[in-house]
Amino acid sequence: MTTHTFLLAPLAGNALWGAVGLLAGVVLIGFFARRKPMTVTARSVATGIILAVTLLLGWIFIGALSAKVQLEPTKLVLDLPAYSREVPIASLQLDAARVIDAKASDAPKLGFRTNGVGMPGYNLGWFRLKDSDTRALVSVTGDAPLLVIPTSDNYILVLSTPDGDKLLAALRQAVATGAAR
C-alpha cells in the first residue's frame, strides 16, 4: 500500500481574519509595551515574550493553512500544527466512524478545551465533548464536514476535511486488505 495524503480544511473566512487580527493585536500590544518606561531587563523580557507568542501563533495559523492527514500502511499520520500524531490504524474503530455535517444536531459538540487553540471558526488541540467525559483530538475549521473516528485509546478524532468520505473509505480498504496489521 502506498501513502495517501488527504488535506484538512484550511483556515478561511472569519477564522482567517480572526487569526490575522489576533496576530496584529499581539504585535500592537508589543509596540505599546515597548513605549512604556521600563528597565532594560523588563523591556528585554517583554520583547522576548511578545516575539515568542507572535511566532507561536504565526506557526499555528500558517500550519492550519496546510494541515493534512497521511494514510500509511499501518498508521494514520496527522500533520497538525503543534498536535501532530501517529495513530495506528488498528486502534481506529472504523465501524463507528462517520462523516457528518458540522451543523448537524448529532455532530460532536466541543466543550472544555484542555489544551489547544479555540477561536470562532477554528479549534485545534485537545477538548472534552459537552455533556461527556470523552476526550477529542480536534482540528475543526469553519463549517467543513467532520470526520469523526473513535479510537481504542479512549479518545476520538474530529477532523474538518472535504475529503472525509474518501479518507474513511481508504481507511476501511486498508483494514479490509489487511495492510493495517
**Parts with pLDDT < 50 across at least 5 consecutive residues:** none
The number of distinct β-strands equals: 10
Order of helices and strands: EHHEEEEEEEEEH
- What would you report as the Rg, rounded to the nearest angstrom? 19 Å
Distance between the termini: 12 Å
Helix content: 25-40%
> How would you characterize the largest beta sheet?
6 strands, mixed
Shape: elongated
Strand order of the largest sheet: 5-9-10-8-7-6
Please, how many domains? 1
- Number of separate helices: 3
**Beta-strand percent range:** 25-35%
Structural class: alpha+beta
Mean pLDDT: 88
Domain Bacterial Pleckstrin homology: 69-174
Keywords: Membrane, Transmembrane, Transmembrane helix
Protein name: PH domain-containing protein
InterPro entries: Bacterial_PH-related
Spell out the blueprint of helices and strands.
Layout: E1 4-7, H1 13-35, H2 40-64, E2 68-71, E3 75-79, E4 85-88, E5 98-100, E6 110-119, E7 122-129, E8 135-141, E9 146-150, E10 155-160, H3 164-176
Parallel strand pairs: 8-10
Antiparallel strand pairs: 1-2, 2-3, 3-4, 5-9, 6-7, 7-8, 9-10
Domain Bacterial Pleckstrin homology: 69-174
Protein name: PH domain-containing protein
Transmembrane segments: 15-33, 45-65
